[in-house]
Design brief:
The structure is a homotrimer. By secondary structure, chain A is an alpha/beta fold. Chain A has 15 helices and 11 strands. Chain A folds into 2 domains: 163 residues, Rossmann fold, CATH 3.40.50; 169 residues, Rossmann fold (3-Layer(aba) Sandwich). The first copy, chain A, is globular and about 55 Å long. At the A-B interface, strand 2, strand 4 and helix 4 of A face helix 2, helix 3 and helix 15 of B.
C-alpha cells in the first residue's frame, strides 16, 4: 500500500514556510520561462510524459488556460473533463443505494483517474442553497479520499491557487509583506457570488503577515468562522491584527493593498431575494479613485481583483487600468504558481 | 489508390490469434509504462507527430481520458470532436437531398478528417427507437466506408475496446481462459440501457474459450441473433458451451467470472414504458455476496463491470469493493489495450 | 512598450505579395509534412513550447481540427476556449457600466490570454439581427485592440484562413491564376447564412488576378460595399474585371472555377421571413452537371465549396464527387496554410 499523496485542497493545511517555498520556485520559473520552454519540454520537463486530469464542474477561462498551458510547458498533458456535460453525474456519499440521478460513485471516478493520470485537479462551486452543506466541500473531499495521486483545488469554497497568484504578485510589488495593511473589500455585484476568493484573500493575507481589514456592508457579510478563526490564529502568530469594518473611509486609510471581491452573505443562502435590497444599498462600495486616494502615502496603495471583473460596478475604469492595478499580473501569475505547485506535488518534494 | 485501411469496428472481424497478439502487446506496454514514458514520447513514440480524431456523439469519461492519455504517451495528439455540440449534425445515407437538419455528409467528414489525422475513433450510441435501425450501426459504418485511415469503435452497438480491456484483465487474473466458466448477468437499472457491453462480453468470452452462461430475466432479454450466433460459432470452434439461463442460483454455480451489465430488452425498443414493470420485478438480479458465494471454489469467482456502475443497484458495495472485484483494473486496462491497438493499426502490423 | 503585433484579421490588410509568400511556405510545408513531423516536433518546431488560444464563439469541426493539429505538428499546444459555454460572457464596448450579462471585458480577456499564449485565434459569427452592427466586427476587433500577441480570424464576417486554403488549392490546379475566370455563385440553403465566405471568395479571387463574376438571385444579394469596393480596386489594379450577374448560363460560360456558397441578403437582416420566398424561388441555382458543362474547355471548370455542404441542395452528388471537385483538397489545405501563417506571425517575419 502506498502512503497517501499530499494534496493541495486548502492553504490551511500548508505552513507559511511551505507556501513561501512554492512562491520562490514560481518566481524562478517565471524568470526563466521563455528560455526554459523549448528545452524543458524535451526530456527534462518536470511533467514529461505525465498526465493531469482537470475536472471542471463549473466554467473557467483563466483556470483552464493557465493549467493546460503550464502542464504543457513542463512536458505533460492535461485532460479536460466536464462531468454533467461531457461525462456522468457522480455520487459523493458512501453507502448509498444509487437509484437516483448519479450513474457513478466518486470512489470509482477517483480511483480510475488515478490509474490514468499523475494528478487530479477539481473545480466544484457551492450549490448556494444551504451553506451548512456547501461548507462540507464534499466533491473535492470525495476525490481526495479515494484518489491515489495528488488532488488540487481549482476553486470550491476557497481558491488556493488564486491565493498563491495573489501572494506572488504582492511579493513582486511590495517586497516584504509583514506589517503592511491589506484591505479585503466587499463590492456590489448584481448576483450573489461564491465566498471562495474572499475566504482565500483573508487567510493568505493573514498567513503572510499583513495587518488585515475586512470591509463589508453589515456583520452578516462576515465570512465563515472556519476562515475568520484561521485568519485570527495567523495574525496572532505573526503579531498582527484582524479588523472587521463597515466604514469605507477608515478601512481604506493607509492600506498598502486593496483586494476587491463580491460575495453573498452566508445567512441568506437559499433565500437570496431577501439579501438583494442590502446589496443594492451598497453599490457605493465600488472601488474608485476617491477611496484609493485614502490609501498609503497619499494614494499609493495597490489594487487587485481575481477576475472576471465587472468594470464600473466593482471598480472604476480608472482604478482597473491604473499602474497600481495588479489584475493582469495576478492573472498571469496563476500560470507560474501552478507550475511550481504541480512540479512540487509530482516530484515528491511535498512531504 | 491506397489499399483500404484495417479498421477495428467489431471483434467479430478479428481472429482470436489477432486479439491475443494485441493483448500480449498490451501486457508488455503496461509493464514498461512508467519507464517508457519519457523516452517513448521523444522521437521513438509509436505515434510521434501523429494525430487521432476522437469523435464523440455521446458523453464519456474513461473512454476519452484513456484514449487521450494513451495517444499522448506514444507521442501523438488527440483532437476531441463532439458533433451536434461543438460541430454540425451529419447525414449518413447516400444519395439524399440534404434539406433537413444535417449540414454535412459523412463522406466529407470522414475524408477531410482522414487528411488531417492518422486515425479516427468514433462513439455513437443507438437511438433506442427501432432496433432494426440501430443494429445497422450506420454512423461508424459511414465513417469506415469513406475514411482513408483506420477507424476504431469507441462504443456503438458493441464496445470492442472494452472487450480487449476485459480480456486482458481476465488473463491477468485467470491465466488461461479456456474451459473456465464466464457468467454474463443482466442487472437492474432504472433506465433501459444499450446492449453494447452485453454483446461485447458475450462474444469476447466465447472467443477466448470460456464456457459462457447468459443470465437474464426472460427470453426477451436474450441478445441480438448476430451476437448470439457469433458466440455459438465461437464456443463450437473452441469445444465449449453457451447456455441461456433465467435462474440466478444455477447460473452462478461454479462461475470463475461474473460480468454484470444492465440492458433493455430488444422487443421493447421504442415502447420502454411496457418494459419497465419487467425490469422492476428483477431488482434481485443485483450481484451480492450470497450469489457470489455460489461461484467456483466456494465463492472465489471474480467480479467485474464496465463502469459507470450504480452501487447497491447493480452490485453491492461489498462486491464492488472486494479483492475479487476487477472494476478498477479493467478500467485501467482500457489505456493499455488501446495503446497496443492504435500502435498496431498505425504501424502497418494489421493486415 | 512593445510594438503592436501583426494580426491576421482580413486579407484586405495584407498585400498580394505577402499572401503569395504565405502560400509558397504552405506549399513547401505540405510537401514535407510527413517527413517533417517527427523532427519538427522535437526542438526544431516553429511553435516549440508555444501555446495558442483558439477562442470559439461558434461551433467548428474543420477549423478546430486543422488549427489544433497544425499547432501540434509544429511543437505547440492549442487551448480551446468556448466563451458562453465553458467560459464567461464578455463586454466589447469601452466605458460601460457592466451591470448586464457580461461578467468580463475583452480588455482583461485579451491581456490575460496574451500573457499565457503566443497567439490568439477567434471565431465569432455575426448575430444576424442588424448588418450595420455585424459589419463592425466588434468581437475580433476588441481582441486585436487589447491583445499584445497576434490575433487571427477563424471566421467572423470574412474567413481569411479559408481564403488562403482556396488560393493554395487554385494554384495547385490552375498554376497561374491571372486572367482566368472565377465564378462565385450563390446557392440555395434552407436557412440564411453568413456572408463571410462569400466576401472572402470575392476579395481573394480579385486579389489573385482572376476575372471575377458574382452570380446571385437579385441585386439584393450583392455583398457589402466594403468587399465589393475592395474587389473592384483589386481587379482594377490587376487589369481584370468584376461582373455581377443574375443569369446562370452566361455567368458559368467559360469559368475556370466555380465557387459555391449560400448567404442571406443584407437588406433582410432581422426580418428573414421576408427573404425566404426569394430564396425558395432560386433552388435552381444548385451547381449541377448541366451548368458545369458550360465552363471552360467544354466543361473542364473546377468546383469547390468551403464545407459543410448540403449535397443535392447546394451541388449535386455528381459535381461534389467528380474529379474536378476541390472540396476535400481545399479543406486539407486549411491545415497547411494555417501552419505557414502561424509560423510567420510567430517568427517575426510579419512586418
Amino acid at each position: 500500500m502506498q502512503t497517501a499523496p499530499r494534496h493541495f485542497l486548502s492553504t490551511l493545511d500548508w505552513s507559511r514556510a511551505e507556501i513561501e517555498s512554492v512562491l520562490a520556485d514560481a518566481k524562478q520559473m517565471k524568470a526563466t520561462r521563455k528560455s526554459a520552454q523549448a528545452s524543458e519540454r524535451f526530456g527534462a520537463g518536470a511533467l514529461a510524459g505525465k498526465s493531469v486530469a482537470l475536472v471542471f464542474f463549473n466554467p473557467s477561462l483563466r483556470t483552464r488556460s493557465s493549467f493546460e498551458i503550464g502542464i504543457f510547458e513542463m512536458g505533460g498533458h492535461a485532460v479536460v473533463l466536464e462531468p454533467g456535460k461531457g461525462a456522468w453525474p457522480i455520487e459523493y456519499r458512501d453507502g448509498m443505494v444509487m437509484d437516483g440521478e448519479a450513474e457513478e460513485h466518486v470512489e470509482e471516478v477517483a480511483r480510475v483517474l488515478s490509474r490514468y493520470c499523475d494528478l487530479i485537479a477539481v473545480r466544484a462551486f457551492p450549490k448556494f442553497q444551504r451553506w451548512e452543506d456547501d461548507r462540507e466541500d464534499l466533491v473535492i473531499k470525495g476525490f481526495a479520499k479515494y484518489a491515489t495521486v495528488p488532488v488540487v483545488n481549482m476553486e470550491t469554497i476557497t481558491h488556493p491557487c488564486q491565493e498563491l497568484a495573489l501572494a506572488l504578485t504582492l511579493k513582486e510589488r511590495l517586497g516584504t509583506t509583514d506589517g503592511k495593511k491589506f484591505l479585503l473589500t466587499w463590492t456590489y455585484h448584481p448576483k450573489p457570488l461564491n465566498t471562495a476568493v474572499a475566504n482565500s484573500g483573508l487567510i493568505i493575507a493573514a498567513k503572510l503577515g499583513f495587518d488585515v481589514t475586512l470591509l463589508c456592508p453589515t456583520p452578516e457579510y462576515v465570512l465563515d468562522s472556519r476562515y475568520m478563526d484561521a485568519a485570527r490564529a495567523s495574525v496572532a502568530e505573526n503579531g498582527r491584527t484582524l479588523t472587521v469594518s463597515h466604514d469605507p473611509a477608515s478601512a481604506y486609510a493607509g492600506a498598502h493593498m486593496v483586494y476587491a471581491k463580491s460575495w453573498g452573505a452566508l445567512p441568506y443562502f437559499g433565500r437570496w431575494e431577501d439579501e438583494k435590497p442590502i446589496r443594492e444599498k451598497h453599490k457605493h462600495f465600488m472601488v474608485d479613485e476617491q477611496k484609493m486616494a485614502l490609501t498609503v502615502d497619499g494614494g499609493k496603495g495597490l489594487f487587485s481583483h481575481c477576475l472576471p471583473l465587472r468594470r464600473n460596478v466593482k471598480a472604476t475604469d480608472a482604478v482597473v487600468s491604473s499602474p497600481s492595478s495588479l489584475v493582469i499580473d495576478e492573472a498571469e501569475n496563476r500560470l507560474h504558481v501552478q507550475k511550481a505547485l504541480l512540479r512540487r506535488l509530482l516530484s515528491g518534494h511535498a512531504k
